[in-house]
Specification:
42% of the residues lie in helices and 13% in strands. It contains nine helices and eight strands. It has helices spanning 18-31, 39-43, 50-58, 70-84, 95-104, 117-126, 150-159, 173-182, 212-224, and strands at 5-8, 15-16, 90-91, 108-112, 135-137, 166-170, 185-189, 207-209. It has a six-stranded parallel beta sheet, with helices on both faces. The protein has a two-stranded antiparallel sheet with strand order 2-3. α6 (117-126) links the parallel β4 and β5 (135-137). α1 (18-31) packs across α3 (50-58) and α5 packs parallel to α9.
Length: 226
């Protein structure tokens, strides 16, 4: 069936959000007189959200020696991140070409992320993308989130499309699991936040893409299929 929509994960797929997310982690660490985290290592955890970053940065010190419990630290992180959500984050080089192709050729594009909706909205608005996307679902938009396929199926319902008419692109195993379970074609964004210990070859995506240019070529190919 011909491709009619390109659906994207947000962090590590559409937008490089690591500068702002790790920046917020390090500001929280500094406020509690802890050493800042290694940016390169912390960046690989961005797709796992604020709690994973907090646990990485504070380690065994959480809840000890005057350091708050993890839930409070996460709230401090989210409050700081909201202030800096679109400060240094950038659309990955080449992704704008993908969006422009979709918009010029009658393809819908949207974002399905596990990021809280209010932060995802602020980020896309700050990057000038919010009004352009056909749909934005956050991790709290529905009772369940990826890897559950419900967000993908809900998106299809809203866009009046069959799952087989959609391509979902993400940089985490949960993205591929959700897309596959919904009956969509899936593509792994190898340019994203994939740690050295992860095995994307085992995620069972339909496509493995090294760059956004590879995604553009795939979208063009699938769109031209009858």
């Amino acid at each position: 069936m011909q491709l009619k929509a390109v659906l994207l994960d947000l962090d590590g797929t559409l937008v490089d959000t690591a500068p702002d997310m790790v920046g917020s982690l390090n500001r929280v660490l500094t406020s509690h007189k802890r050493p800042t985290a290694d940016v390169a290592l912390a960046s690989k955890l961005v797709s796992n959200g604020g709690k994973a970053l907090i646990e990485f940065g504070f380690g065994d010190h959480i809840g000890k020696d005057g350091i708050p419990a993890v839930d409070q630290l996460v709230q401090e992180f989210l409050a700081n991140y909201k202030e800096f959500v679109a400060n240094d984050s950038v659309v990955y080089a080449g992704m704008e070409h993908v969006l422009a192709y979709c918009e010029s050729n009658g393809l819908k594009w949207g974002v399905i992320t596990n990021k809280p909706l209010h932060l995802a909205k602020d980020l896309l608005e700050g990057l000038g993308l919010l009004e352009r996307c056909a749909i934005l679902l956050g991790g709290d938009s529905l009772p369940v989130k990826k890897p559950d396929p419900v967000p993908m199926l809900h998106t299809c319902m809203v866009l009046s499309l069959a799952p087989s008419e959609c391509l979902y692109v993400g940089d985490h195993i949960r993205d591929i699991q959700a897309g596959n379970a919904a009956g969509m074609d899936t593509a792994t964004a190898l340019w994203g936040y994939i740690g050295a210990q992860e095995q994307p070859n085992d995620w069972e995506a339909n496509y493995m893409l090294n760059t956004p240019d590879g995604l553009l070529n795939l979208v063009k190919e699938k769109h031209s299929e009858s």
